[in-house]
Design goal:
Jelly Rolls; eleven-stranded antiparallel β-sheet; globular
Length: 167
């Protein structure tokens, strides 16, 4: 049985922003973090920034970040590139690991194990990477240059509080 403090409640997040702006929801996590849920693009917009949605974990000291992005090449894109991003000591490792239909409901789970193994599950596909353990992090779901509807979004670990940010 999972301790009550480690269980995640879910939320729905309608991330709707004009071109070149972003919005996010985040939570502090203690322990091995997992972010899960579903996301669907309602509208992709044109701007200097590409339409994108994703999740990110940032270490408490800000030196390490990891996450994934669903990136549309344009507002008419039929597919999203799935980008896995790992940043250690200011060095970005970015890898396109696959593609997914841009108009579908996309189920995902993104986790970091206590030993530093990253696991990204999108639909039936799984991707992995080696990273480093992070014991305290800020977990975030975000979007830019479009409307993306996150449903059943869960920040797992010992979530402290959730905050919304718009810019």
């Amino acid at each position: 049985m999972i301790p009550e403090a480690a269980q995640a409640s879910t939320l729905d997040f309608d991330c709707d922003v004009p071109p070149n702006h972003f919005s996010s929801v985040s939570s502090e996590i203690i322990g091995s973090p997992t972010i899960s849920g579903s996301v669907q693009a309602a509208e992709l917009r044109s701007g200097k920034n590409l339409p994108v949605a994703g999740v990110r974990l940032t270490s408490a000291d800000g030196t390490s970040r990891l996450g994934f992005q669903l990136v549309a090449a344009s507002r008419r894109a039929k597919k999203f590139d799935i980008a896995l991003n790992l940043i250690r000591n200011g060095k970005l490792q970015r890898q396109i690991v696959g593609q997914v239909e841009s108009r579908s409901v996309i189920s995902f789970s993104f986790s970091l194990s206590p030993t530093g193994i990253v696991v990204l599950s999108i639909g039936e596909n799984r991707y992995g990477a080696d990273f480093q353990p992070i014991l305290e992090s800020r977990a975030m779901a975000f979007c830019s240059t479009g409307q993306f509807e996150f449903t059943n979004l869960a920040f797992s670990g010992n979530a402290v509080q959730a905050d919304n940010t718009n810019e």
